[in-house]
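Hey team,

Filing this mostly as a record. A colleague (T.K.) asked me to run one chain through the structure pipeline before their review meeting, and I want the input and output archived in the tracker in case anyone asks later how it was produced. No errors, nothing strange. Just documentation.

Input sequence:
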Amino acid sequence: MLSLLGVAVGAAYHVVSAFAQVLAPLAGGLATAAAIVGCTMAVRLLLLPLSYYAIRGQASQARLLPQARALQKRHAGQPDQLQRELAAAAAAVLQCHVPAVPVSTPRRPPERPARP
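Output structure:
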């Protein structure tokens, strides 16, 4: 685990060092700090679309929550029916196709007849 982080830290070090060398004529002694801020801003900009999609997903889940709670109360003892209804409600709210995955229930092995 440590070697995996070591590779990422080493790569980040080289990127920030190269950026600091480019900024050295402009920023002087603050080149390293400016390079860290610049790299941080670049990473944040790269992650911005993922943040946007996460917020959109949370908003759609919030719209689905009241229906999901009502369906959980209605189908408390029927997990298969609950899953089908939740998938249908999600497809209607999210306006997409959500495949219904069957819930696997544990099955008991067949009983063997008692030996005489």
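Quick notes for T.K.: The chain has a mean pLDDT of 84. The two ends are 60 Å apart (CA to CA).
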